[in-house]
Amino acid sequence: MSNDMNNQHSDNVLLQLQQLGLIDGNVTDARTGETSAKATIANNHSQNDTPWFIQILFGFSGIVASLFLIAFLSLLLFGIDGFDSVIALLITGLVLSVAGFVLFRNKQSRDNTFISSLALAISPAGQAYIAFALFDNNLSHPIDVWLFLIVQAVMTVIMPNRIYRLLGSIMTLGLTVYLLNYYHLPELSLGLLALITTGSNLSRYSLLQRIPSKWRADVFDIIKAIGYASALMLLCVSVYFIAAEHSHSLASYYGDTFRYNYYLAQGLLTLASLYAAYLILKRYDVKLLSAAGLFIGGAIVLLGIISIYVSGLLATSLIIVIAIANSQRVLLGLGVTALVSYIFWYYYQLDTSLLVKSISMLVIGIALLLIRWTLIKGYLANIKPSANNNQERYS
What is the pTM of this model? Predict the structure, then answer.
């Protein structure tokens, strides 16, 4: 009986994947002659059965190989004075990028680890030479940054490789944060990254339903890469500007008058977190203006106020909640690690005594435990998941 229930659940999941356009139900299994979604997954299993940590290892190996390739080609270009010509750098970058694109698009090479790693080494090298060509010419700043951001965004979309899309998304978002800093708008970074993280993780299937079926698989990989990249950037940026203000590392951009508006930054992050709470509560048919919703919203606002003094608390809490809501273990581990690191970073800062910080952390911990107990006992016990909950949890 349990096997029948498992098969029925599996069939329901496959049906939902078919409706989203992520799999094709008209593929025939070569062994059994069966035409079903299960045959599709069986035929494509070899492309997706590599564990995530192995994929990350391939990513790092590709980056290291790319650095050696850049060093080798740079020696050749120095020998022929290639670095004095913007056109030579641009052609080199385009040729390497096209070669990586061709290797990635070749269906027979996708299952070949060597060819995939070679393509992952060639493509970043091409992007590096395009960056050399853009930043070494007479283009005014930040026009060169804008052009490189556009190139990175386009390459992230067209390259059919998850590791490359993850790295490209991180680079694109990093350039976006840099441009916000350049235009004296660093406070917008937290809210923007939190909004991207929320949308790409909690609304990915709603977004996919607006995409034509033939493009949904590629768009799903892009959204998933953006989700992880934006979460990583959010965790990094949430304490970067505070540390930069104390160390004056951004003085070269702002002179000696750099100031970071904590209230505006945390306010925008709080608004994005409230939107994430709205999306999660919507899965359980709970309105944000209900008793439970108002209590949760108040807890988020309280965390936002505390995060003004304990940097990264609300950002890491947002990542952890999203990871639990979507059953994303990698994202959950990243959020918990960042939360512990931020707490240690806050505790061992030398701006106040450790006794004062110990008391403040004790008070914050007790307050958070009381909020958790109140939510579970008073509001969340009678909440039941709605029909669209399962659809959003498949990640």
Answer: 0.76
